[in-house]
Design a protein that fits this description.
Elements: H1 3-28, H2 33-56
Helix pairs in contact: 1-2
Transmembrane segments: 6-24, 36-54
Keywords: Membrane, Transmembrane, Transmembrane helix
C-alpha cells in the first residue's frame, strides 16, 4: 500500500471537484467573483500537486 499514491489520488480528485465547482459558479453567476477565484486557484494547486505526486512516486512491490 503506497500512501503517497493514495494521497496524490485524493488531492487530484479534490482538485477536480474544486475546478468543477468554480466553473459551475462562474457559469451560473451565483457566487461572488473573489470566492470563485480562490476556489479555482486552490483547485488548480490540489490538482497539479496530486498529479505530480502520483507521477513521481515509484511503484514498490
Amino acid at each position: 500500500m503506497n500512501v503517497k499514491r493514495i494521497f496524490g489520488a485524493v488531492l487530484t480528485v479534490l482538485g477536480i471537484i474544486g475546478l468543477i465547482y468554480a466553473g459551475y459558479g462562474f457559469i451560473k453567476h451565483s457566487i461572488q467573483t473573489r470566492e470563485l477565484i480562490v476556489v479555482g486557484i486552490i483547485g488548480l494547486i490540489f490538482f497539479f500537486s496530486g498529479i505530480g505526486l502520483v507521477k513521481n512516486t515509484k511503484d514498490e512491490a
